[in-house]
Amino acid sequence: MRFVRSFSNAVSFFPGGHQFESGAVILPKSSGMVASRSSLAKLFEDLEALSDRFDLEDEIELLFSKEGLVMRLAEHTLFESGVATISAQALPLLEKIGAIITQTDYLIRIEGHTDNVPIHTDAFPSNWELSTARAVNVLRYFIQHHRIDAKRMSAEGFGEFRPLVANDTEENRATNRRVVVIFIRPDLQNPAKEDRP
After folding, report:
1. Strand ranges across the sheet with 153-157
2. C-alpha to C-alpha distance for 110 and 183, rounded to whole angstroms
3. Is the entire prediction scored with pTM above 0.90?
4. CATH code for the part of the protein at 36-188
């Protein structure tokens, strides 16, 4: 698995302003960060073990960002090319991820991302629709099969507009086709309010 290997720093939340993805600087410790340290570290370990169990070290990437714990899943672990229906082979993996989510209280954001190759089908006029449908289908699976409170969940589709690398080779395009599950740090969470319009 392509982990951020400075795990000892990650567990202590990158003290001293270490660098993380995209060159952004991690903020120093806050009380909220310290309070969530052990639970995020345990979650990291659980997801790492899951990847090893399914022999997906090259298809799943775990890292810490300023938002929390990020789990990137390569497109082909969940979907066939150009479709948003979750593949049968992905269901055991999603079942285990859902079980892990139920053991936490984190807000979860699911993101869909594609490469820049245009898609023009009746179901998906553009990559916007494809990436959004994939994120929503993963969200729906977790809610329906694990009875996770829908207020904890959100889904977004970004099409080709947030690539990790340039879409200039087939390998890079494959890297950009992904679904991301983000476990949002407790000190950044904004619980839904009943009085919101």
Report:
1. 60-64, 68-74, 178-184, 107-113, 153-157
2. 9
3. no
4. 3.30.1330.60
